[in-house]
# Entry
Amino acid sequence: MSCDFMSRRLGIFGGTFDPPHLGHQILASESLSQLRLDKVLWVLTPDPPHKRGKIISPLKDRLDMLSAAITGHPDFELSRIEIDRPPPHYAVDTVHLLLQQNPGTKMIYLMGGDSLSDLPEWYNSIDFVNSCHKIGVLRRPGYDINLNILENEIPGIKNKIEFVETPLIEIAASDIRQMVKSGISVREFLHPEVYQIIRERNLYQS
# Structure
């Protein structure tokens, strides 16, 4: 049996998770099966460079919500790799560190289609793509991106992309924050314990 066949496949799912919602969990679960992952590592980003100047919930609240959301799932693991190192937190550095900590592991970075479109603007995007074994991309109905244009900007990316087919869930964390602020129920979009944390701590009220 070859070493390549034995290589672990680790999914990296990064984000602010403000809050983590069922859409995140569905993407992670579908990625596990469709991309044949051994585990999904949820990488909580304390202060993402592309969201500077925007209001983000305190790290402790997001950490508690994410911990609650993935508790009990044996193939989900919370990573502190960005929490425990100083900023700025760039995806390329995170992938490099994970490769150092997990030699021989194939890193599959998970993202939505909107992030794929923005990828040329990421810090050291070419190095980032080269460091990943694959990039798992959520494909939504009606989703369309010109991969040829993307290939011109980041050579080799077409061979790295694997699409993940998921049920249509038209919800984003920003929608949930606005709904809470407006007094609209968000219970059906969240893990029960995440919903409870939001209520008990009066998150997203202003």
In short: The chain has one domain: 3-200. The first strand starts at residue 9 and ends at 15. Residues 1-5 have pLDDT under 50 and may be disordered.
